[in-house]
Write a structure and sequence with these properties.
There is one protein chain. With about 110 residues, the chain is α+β, with helices and mostly antiparallel strands. It has a single domain, classed as Alpha-Beta Plaits, CATH 3.30.70.100. Helices cover about 35% and strands about 30% of the residues. It contains five helices and four strands. The chain has a four-stranded antiparallel beta sheet. Strand 2 and strand 3 form a beta hairpin. It is globular. It starts with a strand and ends with a helix.
Amino acid sequence: MAFRVMLRMQIKTGMEREFERVWLEVGDSVTSHPANLGQWLARAQDGVYFIVSDWVDEPRFREFEHSDRHLQHRQQLHPYRSEGSITTMHVVAYLRGQAQDVSHHEWEAAR
């Protein structure tokens, strides 16, 4: 099963849209890593965002975490955040949902 990383970030008031734009621009520095399975950006409320990324295993994530690539990625997002935290976990089970077969484009169109 995958290794999951969840970041909670408080974004400075008024910088939320710019943060989202930059996150999308620099995201390939994470998703292009051979051990990355994908990542998601979710907005809660009051400027709180969650970034979830899945990795093939913990050692490969830790390799990325200590790389220059990760440092550069963090530096590009750091100006937008006022605080944050990280939680890591091992995925122990996965149940595929019926909507899994719907493409991201179809999902966006339905919103």
